Amino acid sequence: MHATEISPLTKKLAAFVALSDGDLAVLARLHQKRRSFGAGREMVHEGETEQSAYILAKGWVCSYKLQPDGTRQIIDFQIPGDFLGLRSVLLRTSDHSFEPIVDILAAEVPKKDLLEAFTNTPRLATAILWVASRDEAMVVEHLVRLGSRDASKRMAHFLLELGARLTLVGLGSKSGYACPLRQYHLADALGLSSVHVNRVLRDLREAGLVSFRDGQVKFLDYAGLVKLAGFYTAYLDETGPLLL
Amino acid sequence: MHATEISPLTKKLAAFVALSDGDLAVLARLHQKRRSFGAGREMVHEGETEQSAYILAKGWVCSYKLQPDGTRQIIDFQIPGDFLGLRSVLLRTSDHSFEPIVDILAAEVPKKDLLEAFTNTPRLATAILWVASRDEAMVVEHLVRLGSRDASKRMAHFLLELGARLTLVGLGSKSGYACPLRQYHLADALGLSSVHVNRVLRDLREAGLVSFRDGQVKFLDYAGLVKLAGFYTAYLDETGPLLL
DNA sequence: CGTGCCCTTGACACGATTCAAGGCTAGTGG
DNA sequence: CCACTAGCCTTGAATCGTGTCAAGGGCACG
């Protein structure tokens, strides 16, 4: 049904593993059951037991945890080509909630189909595990960002990481990308107040490093931003998976 | 050789899965190759490709990432019964470094043995994957701690989490536990200066909540501490794994 | 008896939050 | 077509939490 279009996930995987025609066919099959979700309506609540995962095809999602005092900490953003709830299918109930940031389109992947794909196409399985492992590395990097960098470095690093991820699925480049996030999303993700996010963005813009406006991130001085952020891509690049 | 003693890992797994004699035998076999490492000497460096994982039998380890500016962020502590480098065996090179905090004793688990155990004892495999997934949930919780809690809540939450983990392997209780960490370990883990860690510890002690002294953590008012920290154990308790 | 490591405390500086007010823009109903 | 509203962004001023700097104390070890 969507046979001719190349999905973002396929694009991402292809950057790291040579996929056979068989792999591609299975991947296409996993993309069959399309569903859409409206912006702002929670998809999965913390603690729910899911039977399906999703592959995000279009739009952005965030995963977060709510605190007793009402603040929320955004753990990660999902962009096209990312899995949603992969872990909860493989292992346990979800330990955080998901919410679409804009209207999204996602392919539902029932547990059964996923497990089948795993047994039938080992190379694809490896690639998917590699993706999961990369996601985990990004969470760790986010942790480091929160624990030991000041506001502008956090921001710089975060915007660069997003850029790198989007570039991999053809939605970004070293000059910038479209970004539907609000300043309060940045605040909740980076552990800052939205007022301060605003100030930091102004500073970065006035320093000629990066601008965040009208849904567009524009890198004005990529190298300078990388230097400020201490942005090393080792945790993202990974030359490819080895096994399981 | 160590046939009679119950390893911490076994204790931990047994709390969640009913292990058969076969499972126990395999587990015991994984514990055979004992090695020791001296405190402070880095075991694995970020980026290294490991061929073995370890099961920590005695002592504490921390995993961390170093920043360009020399500060380090501790990502997690490993206590007896925890795996070290499990991910790097299954999937990819390690993305952070490990360092023993005290002299430790660990069982080396070669990749081959681990994979064998996975195929031969599916129930054990599930249990181990469950452990890995729990570790990941703890990293997420740590991220939340750093992003959206002030210093005393971070500290309170952290000390409680450690207590819960240690209790599971018989090394702690609701009244306290032995803890070889220095104040600078807490600082590096919680994203605080060690000076401030010191102040926070004093405050908590004077508030009659918890004391951290001479290698002993003593809970003076467990319920009060839980309340201050907003400590909910859902992410740790997990009534048990379902599958793979 | 010294030396080094860690803990402790105080004074001060700085980064981030909070509070408050106002502006812009898109959407809504008169 | 024009109020009017609701979100979101922007800015300033005051406050608070945490970091930095500096000095001293305790304890273990050589």
Verbal overview:
- The first copy, chain A, has 244 residues and is α+β, with helices and mostly antiparallel strands.
- Chain A has two domains: 8-138, Jelly Rolls, CATH 2.60.120.10; 142-237, Arc Repressor Mutant, subunit A, CATH 1.10.10.
- In chain A, 45% of the residues lie in helices and 20% in strands.
- The first copy, chain A, is built from ten helices and eleven strands.
- Chain A has helices at 8-14, 21-30, 86-90, 111-120, 122-148, 151-168, 183-190, 194-206, 222-229, 234-237, and strands at residues 34-37, 52-58, 61-66, 72-78, 83-84, 97-100, 104-110, 172-173, 176-178, 210-213, 216-219.
- In chain A, the strands form three sheets. A four-stranded antiparallel beta sheet of chain A has the order 1-7-2-5. A four-stranded antiparallel beta sheet of chain A has the order 8-9-11-10.
- In chain A, β8 (172-173) and β9 (176-178) form a beta hairpin.
- The longest helix of chain A is centred in the middle third of the chain and has 27 residues, at 122-148.
- Chain A is globular.
- The two termini of chain A are 32 Å apart.
- The model of chain A has no long low-confidence stretch (mean pLDDT 89).
- The A-B interface holds A 47, 65, 67-69, 71-73, 75, 87, 90-93, 95-96, 115, 129-130, 133, 136-137, 139-140, 142-144, 146-149, 189-191, 230, 234-235, 238, 241-244 and B 47, 65, 67-69, 71-73, 75, 87, 90-93, 95-96, 115, 129-130, 133, 136-137, 139-140, 142-144, 146-149, 189-191, 230, 234-235, 238, 241-244.
- Chains A, B: InterPro entries: cNMP-bd_dom (IPR000595), cNMP-bd_dom_sf (IPR018490), Env_Response_Regulators (IPR050397), HTH_CRP (IPR012318), RmlC-like_jellyroll (IPR014710), WH-like_DNA-bd_sf (IPR036388), WH_DNA-bd_sf (IPR036390).
- Chains A, B: This is cAMP-binding domain of CRP or a regulatory subunit of cAMP-dependent protein kinases.
- Chains A, B: One of its GO terms (molecular function) is kinase activity.
- Chains A, B: Keywords: DNA-binding, Kinase, Transcription, Transcription regulation, Transferase.
